[in-house]
Amino acid sequence: MVTFLTDEGDSFSSSTHRWDYDVFLSFRGEDTRHGFTGHLYQALCDKGFKTFIDNEDLQRGEKISAELIKAIKSSMISIIIFSQNYAFSTWCLEELTEILECEKNGQRVLPVFYKVDPSEVRKQAEGSFGLALTTHEKKFKNNIEKVPGWRAALSEAASLSGWHYEDGFPEYQFIQGIIRVVSSTKSNRTKLFVAQYPIGIDSRAKFIENLLDIKSNDVRVIGIHGLGGIGKTTIAKAVYNRVADLFEGSSFLMNVRQNSRKDCSIIELQGQLLSEILGSKEVKVHNTSRGINVIKERLSCKKILLILDDVDKLGQLENFLGKCDWLANGSRVIITTRDRHVLTTLEIDPLIYEVVQLDRHEALQLFSKCAFKKDKPEADYLQLTNQFISYANGLPLALQIIGSDLRGRSIRQWESELEKYKDIPNKKIQNILKVSFEGLEKNEQDIFLDIACFFQGLSKNYVVDILAACNLYLDSGIPNLIDKCLIRVEFDKLWIHDLIQQMGREIVQQESNVLGKRTRLWCYDDALEVLKENTGSDEIRGIMLCSHKPTTVTLAANTFKRMRNLKFVIVHNVHIRKELKYLPNGLRLLQLPNYSFPLPSNFCPQKLVTLEMPGSCIRLEKLFKQEFQFQNLKSINLSGCESITKLPNLCTPNLEKLDLSYCKNLVECHESIGFLDRLQELRLSSCEKLQNFPSHLTWKSLYTLDISSCSSLDFYFSLLVDNFVFGFQGLYSYCCKNVVDLEDIIDKLPPTKILCIYTGKSRPRCEYCFFINSYAFLDLRNVQNLDLSNVGNLIELDFLMKSDYFPVLERLYLHEINIITIPESIAKFTSLTTLGIKCCKYLREIPRLPQSIRSVRILNSHSLHPQSSDRLFSQVGELWRPPQHRFDFKGYELILPGSEIPKWFNHQSVGNSISFWVGCDCDHVKFSYCVVFEPNEWNGTVKVSLKFNGIKLMDGIPLRIQRDTDMTCTHVWFCKIFVGRWSKYLNQFERHRVEVEFECESYRGVIHILRCGVHVECTCPLAQELSTNTLPPTSIPAFPICLELSNSNSMETTYNDGCDLSLSLCTSPMGRNYLPPQPQVTIPDDASHISLPSSIDLPNNMTDMLELCLSVQGLGIGSTVSEGFHLGSSSMAHNFDSDDDSDFNL
User: Is residue 676 within 8 Å of residue 655, measured between CB atoms?
Assistant: First the structure.
């Protein structure tokens, strides 16, 4: 079985026939024009069939005309009337040959033997047909191929199913029989209506047509699989229209799921199938069992196309296909379904095509067609359009319903509908999506609702462990949800389409109008109301209290007492001010970070699977009582818990992950930790007081051990080798000052396992020789990570730069060592991607790094020479490697001490946000970002949000700064991040408004961003170019937002008439050691560069507000800037005087 996915969006030329005529009549005029053929023609016209009959005045010859050939090819049906003198006409024989060629391409050919025997036509041995062909053989004796071709055509046509008219039979009745077949044929060949706006259908239908491979003579079953409303039926209809004429019979059975609820409905579908393919309603079906056999008997000799739409059970397929063993060679079956499992259980192995949602360009086009009847949205509605498109998330059903509902409404109504959709989903959309949910078993419904409410985007294994402890059957439940397109797994994380998630949450909200009686609470306001007012109940299964911003709340001490069936408690960004006196013992998941009180004394959660309380005041000896076993507990995260001084016997035999990093007061670990056979990750980094560690270890599953920065720990690595098979993926031991025997056991490790080398302060013997001796017996060819931290006597790195050392080195860490310079030979590490330097107080010089570098982090190394900083900015700034695949999001980053953003960043601002205009040629993929953030003792996460015309293109987390060492000064962070190419979706206007916002959250609060900047590589607009016809709708004025203002009021300047002081917003692309071109003016050194915050709203007519003055020192010119002077943004300063001392709220 093969599954195909495609998101290609290009259209293609349809292979579907466009019939100009229903019927083409081929006849010998002198025999039947004014008799039988004339009567047949009139009867066809009377019934509304468009019929071609040649004109008596049509010029005759040995070859038929191009006009006649065109008419034959563009006819759905050809009726050949064989009469006594038909074969004497070479014209008729040429028509016959052309007609039979068209039959191969889907035309239906119906022969009528008018007063001649079919065998006479077939054999041409006697009678008029034999005489005619003999005559032609004499006439065309020099063209030996022509007459045999005619003979073959006559034989082939005479073998087709048709009519034989003999004298005495009523001609009218005979003609009515022909009319019935023509009517049935046309009915079956009438094209299906696909869609009013078939956006994106062509490419997807073409892909399926390729899977069908009509030219192949085998039997094929194609499955079209996808979530409700994704367009499965629409695509199937498009495919049907393209290829149905290439089969001897075809049938499209719509809504099989809905029409199979009653036995009589199945019988009707079976009858429809037989009628459409056989072209007759005479075959009757009386029960489903007999119908299966009738289908098999009557259709097994025909090459057919059968489409079964919206199937959700295998039995529905069996009603029409049986075991699929009767289908004739060349037949094709297409099945559309929401449930992939239906396809995998067929007797014949199908090819499965999974329909992907519309891309942004297709979604914009479809929505615009529905809302505006145009390919593009109206300018005033662009930003709202983008928000509705984001809400629909590529689902055609939602785009059509919402777009049609909004057509003709005002902007205010659009805004109201958008807010409503966030809380109240559209019923039409929900009813279609809910079909998949209603087909689930109770077990699967609970799994789906739990994921939709609490676990979207989390690790599959993490979620499975938690839900399995709730007596849910995940081994079958998760695959079934995936098969039904309700969830998907990408990179081991569980994801749900936004509208599917909203559907699930809406189902929960409909459980009760009383919040406390719903099974799941995820909305912050709802959860807070129930917890503060103590209105919970036993119905509540899970509760999530997550705030977007840090907040403090007071909850009732016994607020959880009424929730005895509670399984999940998830708290984030919320500080609980008052101690909780009760928590349910049946919890499976407890996320309660930074909780300032001990857990309730009567709390004994023996069913707990995951405990996450970093930064809390937990008391382990009270929680893990010796008389209880915590068999289910698999993951514990207590990082940063300063209340922990001793790790007791946890009584957790199945524990897999334990994180006690940054527990600064932890001194001792109980011996039982060494007997956790299933332990996979143990993190004890920065436990500075940790001294006692188990002497006996039986770890069989451990792959990560982090004892970095455990400065008081005596650790013998030989324990690892002596007690179990070494299987680490990461061994972190740097800053563990008292590790005494690492060099004695490294040579015992298999070379293929050596991924990392970490060293620490060694024994009193020569520390420098320690490295030399260690490297001597290592296979350095396999080393990818090298850490040389806390080696006080190490002052140079030249000994590491030998040609045969570290050929595949990828990451190099240098922390707290006394080096002054990094040798230029570092460039030989052509695989090096990461360089980390921390607290190297003497470091001054860093040379040019290898081209492979992607991340450079230099923290608290204050002696670094400005020239080295400039070199690093220049190199990382010019690097750009296109992503290798669609999920390659990693960019380039640099962090180093400093307080200024480089001048070549052409958009700069105080604070954490910035807005500006760019031209249509702007490539945001190559934007560079820079921020300056304040010192902070905790780790931080920098987030970048990028919007074009209100469309959020990026909301990424490009940098995480670990808090191994406190940040003692301001640092500058620079990055380039790949966010996907969206330029083809942003071409509605010549100019675009860009909004960039930065956030830096630390472990215990927000790190303040002092300045931010963006470098743009494009030609940006001048203010006079920003007309309302080229701009997207916005409340921001129609000129560049990045106006750089001076805080000086001391200079009054003028300029000479004719001096062009319009400034370009952006510079040329960067090159090696290239600085953006500077204006030919002198800028004061102390001129400040302050951009307007993105929130500021200025009027278009600046003269109504204040006079802006341009000051250019040294030119001796000055003038007041009045209407008509336009400001650009660049890396130079613009100095302004304000008569009213307005500070623009800066």
Answer: yes
pLDDT-based confidence at residue 477 (cuts at 50, 70, 90): very high
Q: Which amino acid is at 724?
A: F
* Per-residue confidence band for 925, with pLDDT thresholds at 50, 70 and 90: low
Q: Which residues pair with 814 in a beta bridge?
A: 837
Tokens of 933: 């953030």
Contacts of range 37-43, beta carbons closer than 8 Å, 24 or more positions apart: 37/81, 39/171, 39/172, 39/175, 40/79, 40/81, 40/175, 40/178, 43/175, 43/176, 43/179
pLDDT band for position 1073 (cuts 50, 70, 90):
very low
Distance (Å, rounded) from C-alpha 935 to C-alpha 972? 11
**H/E stretch holding 187:** helix 171-189
Beta bridge partners of 945: 955, 997
Nearest residue to 42 (alpha-carbon basis) of 190, 185, 184, 171: 171
CA pair distance 82, 93, nearest whole angstrom: 11
CA distance 434 to 505: 11
pLDDT digits (tens, 9 = 90+) for 139-195: 888 887 889 999 999 999 998 888 999 888 888 899 998 998 888 788 777 788 888
Strands 351-355 and 220-225 come out as parallel
Least confident of 65-74, 814-823, 1008-1017, 1019-1028: 1019-1028
CA–CA distance, 1053 with 768 (Å, rounded to integer) = 64
- State the Cα angle at 232 between 230 and 234, rounded to 5°: 100
3-state helix, strand, coil in the chain (%, to 5): 30, 20, 50
Dihedral (CA of 811, 815, 821, 823) sign: negative
Please give the Cα distance from 313 to 345 (Å, whole number): 10
Pairwise CA distance, residues 1020 & 1024, whole Å: 12
Tokens coding 1058 = 């004719």
Strand partners, 1109: 1120
Instruction: Give 297: exposed, middle or buried? Use CB within 10 Å, 0-12, 13-18, 19+.
Output: exposed
In three-state secondary structure terms, 996 is strand
Residue 1134 confidence (pLDDT) above 50: no
| 574, 562 contact by CB (below 8 A) | no
Measure Cα distances from 55 to 27, 60, 74, 512 in Å. 12, 11, 17, 76
One DSSP character per residue, 450-516 reads HIIIIITTSBHHHHHHHHHTTT--HHHHHHHHHHTTS-EEETTEEE--HHHHHHHHHHHHTT-SSGG
Q: Are 604 and 622 in contact (CB under 8 A)?
A: no
- CA distance readout (Å), 941 to 528, 836, 1004, 1006, 1008: 27, 17, 11, 9, 12
Among 76-80, 293-297, 425-429, 1031-1035, which is the least confidently predicted range?
1031-1035
- Tell which residue, 552, 506, 510, 505, has the closest CA to residue 528: 552
936, 908, 925, 964: which is closest to 1069 by C-alpha? 925
Interhelix angle 36-46/171-189, nearest 10 degrees: 50
Element housing 158 (H / E): helix 146-158
DSSP label of 1007: P
Residues 6+ apart with CB under 8 A from 895: 856, 857, 858, 859, 959, 961, 971, 972, 973, 974
- Residue range 234-245, pLDDT digits in tens: 999 999 988 888
Classify the C-alpha dihedral 902-903-906-907 as positive or negative: positive
DSSP 1002: E
Which positions are catalytic? 95
Residue linked to tokens 């005033």: 380
pLDDT in tens, 964-978: 446 778 888 888 765
